[in-house]
Amino acid sequence: MNSVHTTCPYCGVGCGVVAQREANGAVSVHGDTQHPANFGRLCVKGAALGETTGRQGRLLYPEINGERASWEAALDEAATRLRAIIDTHGPQAVAFYASGQLLTEDYYAANKLMKGFIGAANIDTNSRLCMSSAVVGYKRAFGADAVPCSYEDLEQTDLLIFVGSNAAWAHPVLYQRIAAAKQARPEMKIVVIDPRRTATCDIADLHLALAPGSDAGLFVGLLNALAGELLPGRFDGQDAALAAAREWDVARVAAFCGLAHSDVARFYDWFLSMPTAMTLYTMGINQSSSGSDKCNAIINVHLASGKLGRPGCGPFSLTGQPNAMGGREVGGLANQLACHMGFEPADIARLGRFWGSERIAQTPGLMAVELFEAIGRGEVKAVWIMGTNPAVSLPDSDAVRQSLSRCELVMISEVAAKTDTSHFAHVRFPAQGWGEKNGTVTNSERRISRQRPFLPAPGETRPDWWIVAQMARRLGAGEAFGWQHPQEIFCEHAALSGFENDGTRAFDISGLAGLTREAYDALSPVQWPVTATMPAGTARLLTEKTGWRGGRLAMVAVVPALPQARPDARYPFWLNTGRIRDQWHTMTRTGTVARLMQHQPLPRVSIHPDDAVREGVREGDLVDVVSAQGFMVAWVALSEAQQPGALFVPMHWNAHFATRGRVNALVAPVCCAHSGQPESKQTAVRLQRRHTHWQGELFCRALPALPSELLWWRQAQHGCEHYTLAGVTSPQGWLCDLATHAGWQIQYAEGAGAFHLLAWRDGELMLAFYSGARRPEIQPEAVATAFSEPPACALARHALLAGKRAGNAPAKGRIICSCFGVGENAIRAAITAGCVSTEQLGESLRCGTNCGSCVPELKALLAQAASLSEAANQTGRGERVALEPGEEILPRQARR
Ligand SMILES: Nc1nc2c(c(=O)[nH]1)N[C@H]1C(S)=C(S)[C@@H](COP(=O)(O)OP(=O)(O)OC[C@H]3O[C@@H](n4cnc5c(=O)[nH]c(N)nc54)[C@H](O)[C@@H]3O)O[C@H]1N2
Ligand SMILES: Nc1nc2c(c(=O)[nH]1)N[C@H]1C(S)=C(S)[C@@H](COP(=O)(O)OP(=O)(O)OC[C@H]3O[C@@H](n4cnc5c(=O)[nH]c(N)nc54)[C@H](O)[C@@H]3O)O[C@H]1N2
Ligand code: SF4
Ligand SMILES: [Mo]
């Protein structure tokens, strides 16, 4: 079978992937060495892509009210009901909610239908939660949503600043590229600005653990420090921006941000003295009630210092989703029209001419948070959700659920059979997923790459654009949606980008408008603009002096504002939310892969050890995290990386993976006034200990009905179902009843608060259960294996009852390296045996040698061991015996 060059469907790095379907149906992937985004590297999520394909968990057929239906029936039903709502209540009563997971062609089609033919601008996207502040920032500064930089700039810069970005986990391949550049040029300085000490800090020369939400103060102060370098009148808005910054000297900044005076001064000194600098910013900046101003505070200092439009310079907003940028190009946000056009009369008229429609939306539509509020009030009566899971990812998600449950018509286009959002849908359209669908995506550096199909589409799944086009036909707009292939959509989009453009709109890919199907299929990754004058694309979008529309670059006056959320006596903690290394968003794809579940299998609330003492909670306790909005249940994890008073919870868990694991139940729907982006990074909360009498692990072939009082967490596992459970009433009763009812033989052990049970049918393991006052220390992989390879002897069965493998195979502990399944225990053992570097650990255990995402954690374990042994030496206890040169206690290659 031939291999296919395609693009990873996860983050905005946009790595090239070579995928191959083996004769047995298995899918193998590796990094595309030719792709300029990754040159062959993949992170663990990308490397596990082959494990996410297949039919399991997929939505395969259209459904009406939960019943399988034909495409004809489902489309007719949806169109008839949509038409009726539009006829009765007008086009503003319907909305689409789309996603940066869609391909550009899908996105273009959805935007065209809503804004061009239904005639309202009520199409918004999950990019509202993600990039919208960055878009406002660029537009205000450059007159266009124009990301000025390229990845290659990262390798050429003298000073690289990560602000509100945990790139080591969220943009791993890019981070590895930066780490390699730093290794090659150690004089390159790296600054991380984040209230938490994250894995990204691993390569930092300076970590500024500022107070939550205080970044604007830091950058406004930097502008003040730069003021002397600026010639008067260089930029629009310059005087006002400088005036707003005037009072912000280092002392005031240090107090505002809760930082040491010397650290702020050092950061400013580096920025002023280094010839080049880049600022990489993501959700710690964008997801803020003053996110747009924070973006401009960053851009201002690049303008003021001239660190823009040159190699190794620029304010670089990293995009999150695989096609967040594509969505911005097609106009997927409710306050834009297509191809970087706005709602100026000339733009509306131009679009009407190009699309041949007299029904172009005249005014901006509802932004994500407003949109779901309008659904809740009954003003919007129909919503079509494509490729996003708002019941999990929007703030105040309990209210979002209520809105959806009241909505007259909810339609979804999905790849997963069951999601929190699809639960509310009346009509479900099965979409083609990665490996099946065909089109383009654009990454953070404006690089357009092809996603190419290499798998047959399962069931009756269809491309997202096709579903939209079918709907358009039924709404009477068929002619404008008559495409037969995504290449036709792409060429139309490319032509529109150049239509009456004349250099007025930054986004111009008219150079690709004439692609034949063959050329489209063969398209190499290329950075826009792509025009007649720049046929091979454009690496750097702005020069030092000119922006778009005649050199108008602007500064924005920023008055640093603190978050709207404010801890108080009732809710004393700051709650921060974000990503973990191996999960993607609402887990519909990564949550099914055992390998990706091992690193952090449970929703944890990270807390500083001092706070834990004050709150009377210990590692592994269960707590309710409570805000004025709602609550969730999480496992306590002590972490020195947290600053006192601040907690962190991942955004990923939801009703399909946990009881009350959804952090957005807590987050208030407070948004930036300019961008509409919610303040997802700051919420005031309190902790409440949850009293359970036991915690346990359940392994089974199929999940039995659980008593309703139990708390459960689903973990992906090979060959069986695996649930972590916790409860109050003893589990013995229902488990024994269950087994007796099913006619299984049981074997159990109890004592000292522990209860273990195995249930068998004809020598086959049906269920294994382990509980204690705390989560029992068992070997999950050993138990899971017993479902396919039942233990052969009494000794092995005995070991299984203890939750272990027979013999002396040690428990793996927490899995650190997901690529090779290397656990914490083996790593600690190797360190004890003499490994002193990540390279040595890699040689000995292979950990960290593939994607590299776990290297920061390996370093942390090494550092921890080193500081422990140092402390032991200082107190004279536990003295380490110095090894003689040549003395070997590990496999030879591990010690040089
Ligand atoms: N593994 C993984 N990778 C992903 C994704 C995923 O789901 N999983 N999703 C992708 C998407 S869509 C996106 S948008 C990106 C997001 O990528 P990132 O923005 O890097 O990820 P987050 O974890 O959301 O948040 C980044 C950091 O912001 C910090 N932060 C919180 N509050 C503040 C603050 O007030 N100031 C500053 N300076 N920092 C603060 C947090 O502590 C956190 O470390 O990741 C992409 N990559
Ligand atoms: N508290 C908090 N909340 C946050 C964030 C945070 O940091 N903190 N981050 C925000 C950010 S930056 C983002 S981007 C959002 C992400 O939030 P969501 O967009 O809600 O998350 P996903 O899980 O990516 O949802 C994508 C859905 O589309 C489906 N899907 C995948 N591929 C396709 C396809 O090709 N076609 C179709 N039709 N469907 C497909 C998936 O199964 C899944 O259900 O969350 C936001 N919410
Ligand atoms: S860094 Fe990882 S998730 Fe992001 S595109 Fe590359 S392989 Fe995919
Ligand atoms: Mo995102």
UniProtKB/TrEMBL annotation:
GO cellular component term, pick one: membrane
Cofactor(s) required, per the database record: Mo-bis(molybdopterin guanine dinucleotide); [4Fe-4S] cluster
Keyword Iron in annotation: yes
PROSITE patterns referenced in this protein's UniProt entry, alphabetically: 4FE4S_MOW_BIS_MGD, MOLYBDOPTERIN_PROK_1
One Pfam assignment: Molybdopterin
Keyword check for Oxidoreductase: yes
InterPro entries with a match to the protein in the record: Asp_de-COase-like_dom_sf, BFD-like_2Fe2S-bd_dom, BFD-like_2Fe2S-bd_dom_sf, CT_Nitrate-R-NapA-like, MoPterin_dinucl-bd_dom, Mopterin_OxRdtase, Mopterin_OxRdtase_4Fe-4S_dom, MopterinOxRdtase_cofactor_BS
GO molecular function, a single term: 4 iron, 4 sulfur cluster binding
Family to which the UniProt record says this protein belongs: Belongs to the prokaryotic molybdopterin-containing oxidoreductase family. NasA/NapA/NarB subfamily.
The name this protein goes by in its record: Nitrate reductase
UniProt source species: Cronobacter condimenti 1330
Taxonomic lineage: Bacteria, Pseudomonadati, Pseudomonadota, Gammaproteobacteria, Enterobacterales
